[in-house]
Structures are given as C-alpha cells and as structure tokens.
Amino acid sequence: MPRQFFVGGNFKMNGVADSIKSIVSNINKAQRDPSTQVVIAPPAIYLTLTRELADPSVGVAAQNVFDRPNGAFTGELSVEQLKDAKIDWTIVGHSERRVLLREDDDFVARKTKAAIDGGLSVILCIGESLEEREANKTIDVVTRQLGAVAKLLNEQEWSKVVIAYEPIWAIGTGKVATTAQAQEVHAAIRKWLGETISPAVAENTRIIYGGSVSDGNCRELSKEKDVDGFLVGGASLKPAFVDIINSRL
Ligand code: PEP
Asked: Is 1 part of a structural domain of the chain?
C-alpha cells in the first residue's frame, strides 16, 4: 500500500483566537486533495477551539506533551489531558524545543513513548544543525535521534509515528533543502529503519520534510520518492498552506 501523503501545519506561538478561526475556516472551505492527511498544531490554548472548528477530516496536534502522567509539573500538558480534549496527535522533539529548551534525545524518546502508550500519534522531529551538516554528520545525528526512540518502541508502535526530517538551518530561514538533499536524508532514514527496526516499518513509515516549505517549492519536493509530505511552519498560517496540501495534484 502506498504511504498516505501527510501535511502538518505547525502554527508555533502565533495567532490569537480570531486569526486561528480564520486559518481553520480557510482550511475547512478549501478544495483539499482527499488523499492527503492534514494535521494542524495550534498553540496549546487554542487546541480545543481548533478541534471544535476544524473539519473532522483535519487532525489536530499539540506542539508538545510531557512524558509523565500527572503531578507537580507546572506548565506542562499530559497525554491524558490531550486525549480528554479530543486531540489525537502531538509534535515531539521540534528543534526549537531541542535547542532553546534543551530537550535531549532521551527526553524526546520518553515523550514519544508516553504519547503512544496513551493513544496519541506522534510527529517526531529530527534534524541537524548547519554546523553538523558542514561536518558531514547529518546521518549520524538523525540516526542518533531516532536510535533513542527505537530503544523504547516496539515494531508495531512505529505505525503511530510520522518522522519529520527538519534540518535546523532550513527552519524559518527561507533556506530550503534542495530536493536532492531532502531525498538523500529521507532515503538514509528509510534504510536505517529497515536495518534497525524492520523492512515493513521502513516501507510504511511516513518521512516528511520540514524547513521553509512554501507553495513555490512544495511540488518539486513532493516528487521525491522518499518525501511523504511536509511539516510546515510559517506558510501554514497563510492561504498558501492549501497549495502545499495539494502539492501532488
Ligand atoms: C517548523 O517549524 O516545523 C518549520 C518547518 O517551520 P518553517 O516552515 O517556517 O521553516
């Protein structure tokens, strides 16, 4: 079975109720490729609003989740709370959290495991810095990040994971990876999944690209064999998001 094309929208810490309503209404009204799975991630305070307003065919994701079930963890949200709010997805390991909030590979892996145990699907972000790319460490970095997760998940649990390859140097910078750069890393990730987890997991896991994806570059990127969709930041706040959803039309 071919892998379903997946487009995620990460609103980050942008928007207020009015603008979120208008973004969601644009997505609801748009002619969307029915074969693309769409999941949007508003700021936490607007998760319930977004879930109430978004068409049922549009998934809603938290931008983050905590790895513990409850307790004295000021400011955090649990998997159970997200499920209670009818949220079915979470982003985990976004580079902004890895870098600015110093989340390490093991913490990201524990969050991934907790999310899956509690019934969420996960958009797992991985990716290298510019320095790491220039030192030819890209594949080492992404496989190290995946390796931490692989220690905690069994083979079946990978079906709940969409891997977002997001080179840090391309996020929010306007510097998109070339189609060849994206394809090379996606193919290496798939090879690693095949060797480390199983050939079936390699075949079935969606590997999406993130980093300055726009309506101008999405079509070329989407033609690459191992690019199964996108995680979109800035452009997910704009009407152009619909063109990205429709990249393969
Ligand atoms: C992101 O935040 O996941 C992202 C890819 O951002 P942008 O599209 O703005 O580069």
From this structure: no
